[in-house]
Every structure is written in C-alpha cells, then in structure tokens.
Amino acid sequence: MAICADALFGELVGQRRARAILERALETGPSHAYLFSGPPGVGKTEAALAFAAALCCNEGGCGVCPVCRRVREGIHPDVDLVSPEGTFITVAQIREINHDTSLRPFESRSRVTIITEAEAMNTEAANAFLKTLEEPPPHAYFLLVTSALERLLPTIVSRCQRVAFQQAPAPELEAYLRGCCAVTDLEAKSFARASEGSPAYARRLAESAPAREHRAQLINWARRVPEASFYDLGVAADEILASLEHLGEERAAELEAARERQRDWAGDARTRNRIEKLYDQRIKRERRRAQADGLAEVLRVFAGWYRDLATVAVGAEQAALNQDYLYELRDGAFVGMVPGYLGAVDAVKRAQERFRYNVDAKCTLEDMLLAIKEALLP
Ligand SMILES: [Zn+2]
C-alpha cells in the first residue's frame, strides 16, 4: 500500500487536525462512517472526495491513479455524492442509498456514499439512514458533510467519527496563494483576508479576472446602497440574482463539456448507465452549489464591507478584510456612523439566517438592501 498524503490532502489549507485524523485512519484502518463538519467553503467536500479516493484506490490512496482521479472528479461508479433534492434529503433518497450500498462495488474494493449538506435529512430520512449506519455492509463507507452540525440528529452524530474543520488562518492562506499563484504581496494579503478562511475562494480571486471583477462589482453595490433609490435597490437585487443564475449555468456547461470528453471511460452497459446517472446528479448538484457559493459570496462581501467601514472608522485598519480598498474605506468611514455600519452588518446576518430556509430570494435580498439603507441613514 502506498498512501501519498500530500497528493491526496495537499490542497487542504489550514486543516492540520482534520488531515491528521484522516491520515491516521488510512494507516490504521478506517471506520465506516465519518462526519466532516465546519464552516462553509473550507474544503470539507474536497477532503471527503480525497478520502473516498483512498478508500477505493488499489494502492490505498496514491492520489494520482485513474481511480483516485475519477473519484475526486465525482464520476467514479463506486462513489455516490448525495445532496438535498429541494430543501430536504428525502426518505426516498435514503432508501436508494440503503439499497445501493447493499450491492457489491462496481470496480473497486469499496462503495462510498458522501452526503453533502447532511443536516438537510429530515427526521424520517435520518431514521431510515440510522439502520444502515448501525450495520453497514463490510465494503460500505459513509462520509457525511455539514456546515450546520447542530441541526443533525444526535443519534446520527454519535455513530460517526468526527472530523472537524476550521476557517483557514489568513497567514496560511497567504502563504498558500504565494505558493500556487502569481500574486503580489498586497494581493495575497487581500485575497486571503477577503476569503475569510476559504482557500478555494481565495484562489479563485488570485487566478480569475472575472472573479475579481465580480467582487469589485459587489463592493461597488455595497458602497452605493446609502444613496440608492428604492428603484435602484430593486435593480441591484435583480442583477445580483441574475449573476448567481449565470454562475450555475456556467458550471453546468463546463461539466457537460467534460462529460462529452469522458464518455469513453465507462466499461460495460451497467457501469456506463451508472456514470451517466452520476454525471446528471453532479451537474444538478454543482449548479446548485455554484449558486449557493455565489450567494454566500454576496453576503460575505456586503457584511465585510460595512464591518470594514466600522473597523477603519475606529482606526484599526490593519484588521480590515478588504486591504486592497483601504483608500476607499478611509474616504467613506466616519466614527459617528459606527452604529449604522454595525446595523448594516446585522441586516446582512439576518438575511443570511433567512436564506437557510427556502425563502423568496428576491424578496429577501430587497429587504436586506432596504434594511442596510435604513441603518446607514445619517
Ligand atoms: Zn490511487
């Protein structure tokens, strides 16, 4: 067995403890169920895919063979990625998991089910899942991923090994960006802070001009809210929602193109059908995830901007998240407005909370922009 932890987990930034747990599990023999918990965007699903690759790989996790590669791309027939259909993970989805995992693996030594947003299992689904979790077939592994641990049933939590993730510390993110991307010191510092602990987002900012433009546009909207009319706020909400829709479509188109290129991978008809099904699921999931990540970014940029105004107004600008906007922040920050800035941050947090339930997005965004405007009235 040749486990190559660096090839598997090299992209996990600032997660020393989680990585140590996973590496030890591969060396000493893994349990059947793990729970990857921690803030959104820090690389939990990527870590679950890397761990799943090691469970399927003939070398025990080389990180580079076709099995490892296909698992990490989410298109290996023995690795299922399950996410909510609508608001919940339903009992029908769980029954399908229970049935599928009872069957032998297609081509590797394991069958791995990764359940993302595991907190979306309703009680009925969780109870249906418990039995399988209690007596899993020898070849079956379950990796649950959640950003809302407190919403999972305790009976589920207690049957899994916990792998806790944290926000990646800014200095580690900075070092990571300097190592992998062509960035200036100011860019590394700014993108590391602006990502608030998410290596994937920090790297996107470092590598993609459209991603940087999008962030600039969001900051621009955040700056303009105080003088915007009601009509302008409605337009801003529409434009933000359209940009999220676009992110989802873009991601789906990328995956459709990848599917065309990789059609020849599958062997017999059964495996081919399976891979087609996995691709369909993956496209649906990633479209949804691109939109969710996009929305999280909108809220993060807005909250970050008003928090920065408060931070700079009280003279603590070295703590600001948007280090590349210090000039604009100094220009716009007034100490008498600090309660207003904090009120605006609260308005974003309230919207964030509402978005966790399947609310009307346009309505919630408009309400948020309006509440920010009111908080910032002089
Ligand atoms: Zn491998």
Describe the structure.
The protein is α/β, with parallel strands linked by helices and 378 residues long. It folds into three domains: 5-164, 3-Layer(aba) Sandwich (Rossmann fold), CATH 3.40.50; 169-207; 209-375, no CATH class. It has 16 helices and five strands. A five-stranded parallel sheet has the order 2-3-4-1-5, sandwiched between helices. Helix 6 links the parallel strand 3 (111-115) and strand 4. Helix 11 (209-224) packs across helix 13 (269-313). The longest helix is centred in the last third of the chain and has 45 residues, at 269-313. The relative contact order is 0.10. The mean pLDDT is 92.
- Which structural class matches the secondary elements? alpha/beta
Estimate nothing, just give the exact number of structural domains.
3
What spatial form do the alpha-carbon principal axes imply?
globular
Radius of gyration: 22 Å
Strand arrangement across the biggest beta sheet: 2-3-4-1-5
> What are the segments in which pLDDT stays under 50 over at least 5 consecutive residues?
none
Pattern of helices and strands: HHEHHEHEHEHEHHHHHHHHH
Largest sheet features: 5 strands, parallel
Straight-line N-to-C gap:
66 Å
State the helix count: 16
Helix content: 55-70%
Number of strands: 5
Mean pLDDT: 92
Bound molecules: zinc ion
Strand content: 5-15%
